[in-house]
Each structure stands twice: as C-alpha cells, then as structure tokens.
C-alpha cells in the first residue's frame, strides 16, 4: 500500500456508548494514509444492536454513504428479520450508491446482536461480511473463540484468490491477476466483495450477486455468553504482524486493567499496537461488551498524537481531519497536544528518548502560550491558531509557496507520478484499472510532463534575481545541475514549475531559459471507432478484448511503447484514464496529418 505521509498521524478519535444491553467503545486512527476512509455504525437498542465497520478505498464517499444509510434504515425500519432481509438491504444500498455515480468503494463487516430474553441467557449473533474487515469473538480469559473464518475469526476475508471467489469472478466475466504478489480482481481490486466499485460491476448480472465484485454479504449465526466480547476491526488492524489471537488477548488485558472496563481504552490500545506491528493503513477498532451499563470516560474524545511534520501540507490536513472527527479544529487539537506534552514531560526521565522527543515537539512553539492563559480557554486556542498562521506565512516567505514546496515523505500527486513513471508495469496496471491517474498526475494538460536539467549556480542565481516574479532562495543552489520534472509552464513571464525528486524533494519556479530539456514529447495518436477497434483486437493473437476499451473510440492518446514484433503500441489515454496495448492499424498518428511521423523507436516489455 505504501507510506502516504512523512509521519503517521496517531491521534485517536474515540466514542463511548452505554445502554441497557451493550457497552461499546470505538477508536479510529488515520495512521500513514493521506486521509481517513473508514466509517462505522453503533446502533444500540434495549434488546438488540447493530454494529458495523466500513473500510473505504479510493475515497471516503462509499463508506460514509453506506454507514449513514444503514443508520437511517435501522431507525425507520428496525432490525432486519432474517438473512434474506439483510442481503436485500445490502444490495439496495449498493445500488443507491452506484446510481449516485460517486467514486470509491467500501468493504463492510457487521454483527446484529439480540440480547437474551432472560437474565444469564445466550446472546444471538448474526454476523455479516463483505470484503476483508473482520468480526472476532473474545472470551474473558483473553482467548479467542475459534471461529470458522480467517485466522479463527467469525468472518472470512473475501480475497480474489479464494477458490470460491475466483470461480464467481471468472464466471461473471472478470479475471484474477497477481500484481506484485497480491491477487486482484481484473488486476486492480484486492478484495472480491465490496459496496461501490462500479468499474467492476459492468459484466455479469443481471442479479447483483453475479458481478466480479459483489456486495453480497456472507452471513453466519452464532451464540455467546454475557462474559464474552465482540471486536470489529478493519483490515488495517490485521495487515501487519498482528494476528487475531493477539488482538483479542491485548483487548482482554486492557479490559481487565481498570476497575470498570472501558472498551474504548482497549480499542485505543489495539490501534496503537497495530501501528507498532507495521500497519500502513487506516485503523478502526470497535469493542462491544455484552450487558448494559455506563462506559467510563467522555462520550466523544480526541487524544492528540505527535504533531511531527508541521511543514507538510498532507500531514497537517490529515491531522486536522482526525480532530474534526471529534468536533475539534486543528488549533484546538494542538492546544490539547501541547498540554499533553507538558504533562508527559513532567513525568518522563529527563535523559530518556521520550523526553527528548517531547522537548523537540514543544520547542517548535517557541516560548509557547503565556502561562496565565488557562488550558482549553478560547484565548489559548487563539494563540495556537495564530501560531499556525505564522507558521504558514513563514513557510511562504522562505520561498516555499511561490518558490519551493517541500513535501517530506508524503505520497503527493507528484511523488505518485514519479513512482509510477519509474515503474512502467505498476503504472500500466494502475492506469488500465480505471483509477484516473492520468487526470490526477498530469492535471488535464494537453502535453506530457518533461524532464529538465537546471543550469549551473553561476548562471541560475543571477537569472532568478533579475526576474521580477522570482526570489532567490539558498536552497535552490542544491538544485543546480540536477534533473527534475516540469509540472507547469507560465509563458507570460518565461518561468516553469519544476519538481525535484528526493533527496531534494521540493518544487520551485525557475526561469525557463535556465532549464535544459532532456525529453522528447510523446507521439500523439487517435483511436479508430469501436467496431473496427474491437474487430482488430479480437483478431490479434496477443490481445484480448475488454469492454473498457470501448471508451477509447475516437479518443486521442500518447504512445508509450511500441512492439514491432506484433505491430502493437501501448497508448495512454488521459481523457478516459486508461492505458492499453492496441494494434497499430487501429491508430492514426495525429502529426501525420500535418507532417508525417514515424512510430516511436523505444521498445519495452508489455504489461500483462
């Protein structure tokens, strides 16, 4: 999945829900991802409850929509009566989301719990799963109930290489490809069941379960006792070296640690441990205790993590978004974090690494807020808001706004472009899957980006200082003689914005005259009409028709590679976010209509 931020956002948004039948604790953490895409449902009634975790991918639209609509349906219609009703609800909400034509998809795992009619009786569980989030059942002694699912869970991960899932995918017109060691539906999606993901529901049918990716829940029924507890976790909890048995054991230990069990504290501990075990995904953990009562602590709580990359826009955005999950602004979150740092520092060993890190974090605020300002007061929050504004202004005045833009280790658009550019096969897989990367990465430009080399220091500095729209920054000296990628050209003042890969890792506007062009523009071609295209592809021994290719009819694209042996070209079509190998006979060189053109000389291995 990759590391999306320079530092993980380890702030935790917490919810606690008590009642007559259940006590629930929920914790969510952004982690290394650029944004939080998970959603959840806690719907606890006197005799039953619905609890769910929905793990989004490709955006948070689908997960948020499904969680909201499930809550609305439960409020208006009550608990679904049986498996058929649950399945019908899942299909109906999936269709609603698909009809809205929004991007993204989401897995979902949930459990409907019915309390016993008599004290001391068994609880009835209807467990449902769509994708690879999990439901676990723990016992008071810390052991896991040996469920029939993945890693002793109650649910089974729906992966494309699961024999039953592969058979359904292939039967409904899809295929399973292994990409970098991971089985994926149509070479794209790493789960075989999900809400949304419209691009994988175009073949098969007409029934909603008969598509390569389906929102059909796998349902099972169980019973448990009042001392047991339920855990619902997204796959971010499970993706590192953190097996289900260890997840349950840690939760049980934390539940016993306090006089009155706090499932939220246990859920927080699970999220932090998952990060330590190597997870790079969003993290969501819900713990449901059976039996009513109050849950100790605040109903909604925000526990701020280290603010370790203040100059990185992506980190700031993710940190702020997590604070908003608990109803706080970024300045309110930093005010809480500052107080927490001060408190932890007062208890830490002055010579410890923890104390050094806390001092470093506190030090970024200079002398800090005046001591007479009360913790949590509006005036103290305003001080941190002013610090944020001052920090942004300082960054811009140092040339980081109109000059260079450091990006830390964040997986920004430009870094993603560079990563894919250096790995043609990965790029081809991503683009051919319909992810829209061309639109994302080249900003709907007519021309492809180009590589350039910066002039020597003795030439660059005078040129920058002589330009009315530019200002010299000493860091630009490090870029002299280095190669970068042109992101934007401004012909009005003869400048270009260039991105430099790590270790420089910044963008800068420079005089175009100081840049040596290292790349030649790609050849532009136009695809023929659908009927001719389909006939030619089906007739070619090395190619296979895919309905997505119909979108290429009449579209213009950029030639990436040529295979002279079988007379095919690999072409990237930015307007429809698709890259494909096509017979050369189906393509017309646009330049040829004006001044003849030869096919490109470069050859490369075809992406499968």
From TrEMBL:
<feature type="region of interest" description="Disordered">
    <location>
        <begin position="392"/>
        <end position="411"/>
    </location>
</feature>
<keyword id="KW-0378">Hydrolase</keyword>
<keyword id="KW-0460">Magnesium</keyword>
<dbReference type="InterPro" id="IPR036457">
    <property type="entry name" value="PPM-type-like_dom_sf"/>
</dbReference>
<dbReference type="Pfam" id="PF00481">
    <property type="entry name" value="PP2C"/>
</dbReference>
<protein>
    <recommendedName>
        <fullName>protein-serine/threonine phosphatase</fullName>
        <ecNumber>3.1.3.16</ecNumber>
    </recommendedName>
</protein>
<comment type="similarity">
    <text>Belongs to the PP2C family.</text>
</comment>
<keyword id="KW-0479">Metal-binding</keyword>
<dbReference type="GO" id="GO:0004722">
    <property type="term" value="F:protein serine/threonine phosphatase activity"/>
</dbReference>
<keyword id="KW-0464">Manganese</keyword>
<keyword id="KW-0904">Protein phosphatase</keyword>
<feature type="compositionally biased region" description="Gly residues">
    <location>
        <begin position="400"/>
        <end position="411"/>
    </location>
</feature>
<dbReference type="GO" id="GO:0046872">
    <property type="term" value="F:metal ion binding"/>
</dbReference>
<dbReference type="InterPro" id="IPR015655">
    <property type="entry name" value="PP2C"/>
</dbReference>
<dbReference type="InterPro" id="IPR001932">
    <property type="entry name" value="PPM-type_phosphatase-like_dom"/>
</dbReference>
<dbReference type="InterPro" id="IPR000222">
    <property type="entry name" value="PP2C_BS"/>
</dbReference>
<feature type="domain" description="PPM-type phosphatase">
    <location>
        <begin position="23"/>
        <end position="290"/>
    </location>
</feature>
<dbReference type="GO" id="GO:0016020">
    <property type="term" value="C:membrane"/>
</dbReference>
């Amino acid at each position: 999945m990759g590391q999306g931020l320079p530092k993980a956002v380890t702030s935790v948004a917490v919810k606690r829900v008590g009642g007559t039948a259940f006590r629930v604790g929920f914790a969510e953490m952004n982690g290394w991802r650029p944004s939080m895409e998970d959603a959840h449902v806690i719907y606890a009634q006197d005799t039953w409850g619905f609890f769910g975790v929905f793990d989004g991918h490709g955006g948070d639209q689908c997960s948020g929509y499904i969680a909201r609509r499930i809550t609305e349906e439960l409020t208006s219609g009550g608990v679904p009566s049986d498996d058929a009703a649950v399945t019908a609800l899942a299909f109906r909400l999936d269709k609603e989301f698909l009809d809205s034509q929004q991007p993204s998809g989401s897995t979902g795992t949930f459990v409907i719990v019915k309390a016993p009619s008599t004290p001391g009786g068994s609880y009835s569980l209807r467990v449902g799963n769509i994708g690879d989030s999990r439901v676990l059942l723990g016992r008071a002694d810390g052991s896991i109930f040996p469920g029939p699912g993945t890693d002793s869970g109650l649910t089974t991960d729906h992966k494309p290489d699961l024999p039953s899932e592969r058979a359904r995918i292939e039967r409904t017109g899809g295929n399973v490809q292994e990409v970098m060691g991971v089985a994926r539906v149509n070479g794209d999606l790493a789960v075989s069941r999900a809400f949304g993901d419209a691009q994988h529901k175009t073949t098969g049918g007409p029934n909603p379960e008969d598509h390569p990716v389906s929102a059909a829940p796998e349902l099972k029924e169980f019973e448990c006792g009042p001392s047991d507890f339920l855990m619902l976790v997204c796959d971010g909890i499970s993706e590192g070296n953190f097996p289900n048995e260890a997840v349950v054991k840690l939760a049980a230990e934390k539940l016993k640690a306090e006089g009155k069990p706090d499932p939220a504290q246990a859920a927080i501990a699970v999220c932090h441990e998952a990060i330590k075990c190597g997870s790079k995904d969003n993290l969501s953990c819900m713990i449901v205790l059976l039996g009513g009562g109050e849950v100790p602590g605040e109903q909604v709580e925000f526990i701020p993590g280290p603010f370790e990359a203040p100059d990185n826009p992506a980190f700031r955005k993710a940190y702020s978004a997590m604070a908003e999950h608990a109803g706080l602004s970024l300045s309110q979150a930093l005010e809480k974090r500052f107080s927490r740092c001060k408190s932890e520092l007062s208890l830490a060993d002055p010579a410890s690494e923890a104390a050094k890190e806390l001092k470093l974090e506190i030090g970024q605020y200079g002398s800090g807020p005046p001591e007479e300002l009360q913790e949590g007061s509006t005036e103290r929050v305003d001080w941190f808001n002013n610090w944020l504004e001052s920090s942004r202004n300082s960054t811009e005045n140092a040339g980081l706004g109109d000059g260079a833009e450091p990006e830390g280790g964040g997986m920004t658009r430009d870094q993603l472009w560079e990563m894919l550019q250096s790995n043609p096969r990965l790029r081809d897989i991503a683009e051919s899957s319909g992810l829209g990367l061309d639109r994302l990465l080249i900003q709907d430009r007519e021309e492809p980006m180009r590589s350039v080399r910066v002039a020597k220091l003795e030439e660059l500095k005078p040129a920058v200082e002589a330009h009315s729209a530019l200002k010299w920054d000493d860091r630009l000296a490090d870029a002299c003689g280095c190669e970068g990628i042109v992101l934007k050209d401004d012909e009005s003042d003869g400048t270009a914005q260039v991105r430099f890969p790590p270790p420089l890792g910044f963008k800068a506007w420079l005089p175009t005259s100081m840049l040596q062009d290292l790349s030649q523009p790609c050849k532009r071609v136009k695809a023929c009409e659908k009927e001719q295209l389909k006939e030619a592809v089906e007739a070619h021994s090395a190619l296979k028709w895919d309905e997505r290719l119909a979108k290429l009819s009449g579209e213009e694209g950029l030639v990436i590679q040529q295979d002279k042996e079988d007379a095919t070209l690999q072409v990237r079509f930015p307007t429809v976010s698709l890259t494909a190998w096509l017979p050369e006979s189906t393509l017309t060189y646009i330049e040829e209509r004006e001044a003849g053109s030869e096919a490109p000389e470069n050859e490369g291995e075809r992406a499968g």
